[in-house]
What does this fold into?
Amino acid sequence: MRVDVVSIFPEYFAPLDLSLIGRARANGVLQLAVHDLRTWTHDVHRTVDDTPYGGGPGMVMRPEPWGEALDALAPAEAPPPRLLVPSPAGAPFTQAMAYELAAESHLLFACGRYEGIDQRVLAHAATRMPVTEVSLGDYVLFGGEVAVLVMLEAVTRLLPGVLGNAGSLDEESHAHGLLEAPIYTKPPSWRGHDVPDVLRSGDHGKIARWRREEGLLRTAARRPDLLAALPADRLDKRDIAA
Ligand SMILES: Nc1cc(-c2cccs2)n[nH]1
It folds into this structure.
């Protein structure tokens, strides 16, 4: 997968040389390039923002540098990338979207700052590539960079060969729309707290049922919205009896 990121703070992405993302880049699973938006400015001050039409606080990111950046990174003669723009006004980023993005061959992230990017940048981009404004949650960040780091981690870990134990993807929270069950390791008893006996029983069927029931109970207690969103066929009668 190819990923391009455009930001006025490219140094925000230094952490992407570390850990599993760093390894994915080293072994070619992920080709990542971070670009400074000011590359596409031409004035002595390398200006990327201006005052908002209609008045109001703050500044708006000018369309011209973004237009030239997207022209350079999504050339007309190549298959178009998917443009992702973090925004408080975006569609919620979910594990389902992470899987969707992991199937793309080229992602292009635009990191907004200030009050945001002139809307015409997205409107023009949408004439030649898929554009998705994405929200990480109902809170406001200084800029899109942190959101892109989160999305890149969530997507990269789904790419083939990135996670050593790909099986863990199948059991983790949100893998099947539910929260995962509690997990334990040695010692069997610690400060008066014991590991549930079933997990030490060696009965894999019982263990699988316990984990499913515990995941359902957690989901019902902490995220009833996820339970309500489950397709009817995902909850069988044994679950309801639990
Ligand atoms: N979910 C979310 C995204 C954002 C921002 C993206 C770009 C500037 S602020 N805040 N909150």
User: Anything to note?
Assistant: The pocket of 3-thiophen-2-yl-1H-pyrazol-5-amine is lined by residues 86-88, 112, 135-137, 139-141, 143-144, 147 (CB under 6 Å). The chain has a mean pLDDT of 93. The CA atoms of residues 213 and 242 lie 7 Å apart. The longest strand covers residues 82-92.
